[in-house]
Specification:
Layout: H1 2-23, E1 30-32, E2 50-55, E3 68-74, E4 77-86, H2 90-105, E5 108-113, E6 122-136, E7 139-152, E8 157-170, H3 175-214
Parallel strand pairs: 1-4, 2-5, 2-6, 3-6
Antiparallel strand pairs: 3-4, 6-7, 7-8
Length: 215
């Protein structure tokens, strides 16, 4: 008899737990996409300075490759939004954004994302160093940082390397607002990188042209 009472009590407890679980609201992950604005088009693009270039997909620290959106509660601490994830790998988004920006500038005769099958004259590789929310007490900001370099494959010479960092302060902490601001600042960082590369390559091409004329 005592054994039966124990079984009944256990069954009632399990039923109550099950009912409590059914009454609770199940939360599902939300997914976000970096929407990097396209660069403005021009009807009269400049004459290409260099030949073909391929862009290797950007690398990134492990904490930016795990899926959840990252935030820093303090300078020494990393944390993740458990229910807010990237729908697409940020490294791929950045690589494609860089390719669009370079095509719009008309710096190269052709621009492709590197897949291992091409034989380009130049290769761009880069790193996504930061893409996270940064908390300073009640103040919330975002930080985006990219670094890249351009290599001439026939010589192995590094023709250019650069870094671009963008930060912005948010009026209010919300994940949609954070992602939107990340997208804008990412576009700015990509534009700064390409401008730096364009200045370096154009200057080098001009110097080479002058040297050839003098000879």
């Amino acid at each position: 008899m005592r054994h039966s009472k124990v079984i009944i009590a256990f069954g009632l407890g399990a039923a109550l737990v099950s009912l409590a679980g059914c009454g609770g609201k199940t939360r599902y992950p939300s997914y976000y996409v970096l929407n990097v604005p396209a660069p403005p088009s021009t009807d009269d693009p400049p004459k290409p300075v260099l030949g073909s270039v391929a862009i290797r997909e950007f690398s990134a620290p492990r904490f930016l490759r795990q899926g959840p959106i990252v935030y820093r509660p303090s300078p020494e601490q990393l944390d993740f939004y458990n229910y807010d994830h990237w729908a697409e790998d940020p490294r791929r988004v950045i690589t494609e954004a860089l390719a669009r920006e370079i095509r719009a500038r008309g710096l190269f005769e052709s621009v492709d994302v590197y897949d291992g099958r091409q034989s380009p004259e130049y290769l761009i590789s880069g790193t996504l160093d930061h893409l996270e929310e940064v908390d300073h007490g009640s103040n919330v900001s975002i930080e985006v940082s990219l670094s890249a370099r351009l290599v001439a494959l026939h010589t192995g010479e590094v023709l250019w390397r650069g870094t671009a960092t963008k930060t912005a302060t948010l009026d209010e902490r919300s994940v949609p607002g954070i992602v939107s601001e990340m997208s804008r600042e990412l576009a700015g960082a990509v534009g700064s990188l390409v401008s730096s590369m364009q200045d370096r390559v154009s200057t080098a091409a001009l110097q080479s042209s002058r040297s050839n004329v003098e000879q």
